[in-house]
Every structure is written in structure tokens, then in C-alpha cells.
Amino acid sequence: MKELFLILTLLLTTNAFSQDGIMLSQENANEKGITPMWPKCDRSRQTPIQCFNNQLRTHIIKNFEYPEVARKEALEGTVNVEFMIDKKGKVEILEVTGAHRYLQQEGIRIIRRIPKMEPAKWGNKPIAIVYKVPITFLKPQ
């Protein structure tokens, strides 16, 4: 009886991990050393996670534009953009919170411009990773 229970338990756990819907948070993915591969990070001397984080930071800085409407209205604040790099390596916006909607729209625009990349993999299966990035807008002088 114990053997039958053990076999059933092993079969059920294997099926639970073999589902296609695996999605990890950035923290869990980093703990396991799993990350999407930003273009050209495969040739970097940095670890894939370090390269991804640096490329994301550079991408945000390079693409940042203070919205003219927000500038005129002297709007500022922090926008939190939660997004996913899906199993195909494409960006999907999940949630945007904080600050004014004009600033939120700029945060969305920046994140949507992230290039397509090689998706993260769990073993040989591509998986989705969820990220949350704060973007702070300080009114220009």
C-alpha cells in the first residue's frame, strides 16, 4: 500500500512540474539563476542576470522622455510597471501603478520598447518571468 501511495505521489508531482504554464517572479528566477537572454548578453563577460539588469537599466535611461503634458502640469512621482517576458521572449505589460496617468503612459511606452529576446528556460522549456520596475519622474528644472 505504501509503495502504491509513493508511486502515485511521484506521478502527481511530476505532472505538476511539467505543465506549460510555469511563470516565475524575478526574485525566484534570480535565486535559481534563470533569466531571459537580452540581445548580445550571450557575448558578455557578466552573468546573464547581471547583463539583463544592466541592459534594462540602460534601456530605461536611454528611452526616457519626460512627457510634455506632465512637464506643463509639473507632475512627478514614481510609476511601477509590472511586466512579463513571456515564453516567446516578448514583453507583456501586466499592471501599472503610481503617479499620474501621463507618467504611467510613458512608463508603458518605455517598457514596451524592450527588444524581443531569448526567453528564460526551466530545463529545456521556455518559461515566463515577471518583473516589476519603478520609474521615477522628477519635474525638470
UniProtKB/TrEMBL annotation:
It comes from the Bacteria. InterPro entries: TonB-dependent_transducer, TonB/TolA_C, TonB_C. GO terms for biological process: protein transport; transmembrane transport. GO terms for cellular component: plasma membrane protein complex. The keyword Transmembrane applies. It is a single-pass membrane protein. Keywords: Cell inner membrane, Cell membrane, Membrane, Protein transport, Signal, Transmembrane, Transmembrane helix, Transport. Its main location: membrane. Residues 1-18 form the signal peptide. Residues 51-141 form the TonB C-terminal domain. GO terms for molecular function: energy transducer activity. Pfam families: TonB_C. SUPFAM superfamilies: TolA/TonB C-terminal domain (SSF74653). It is found in: Cell inner membrane. NCBIfam families: tonB_Cterm. Belongs to the TonB family. This is Protein TonB. It comes from Aquimarina intermedia.
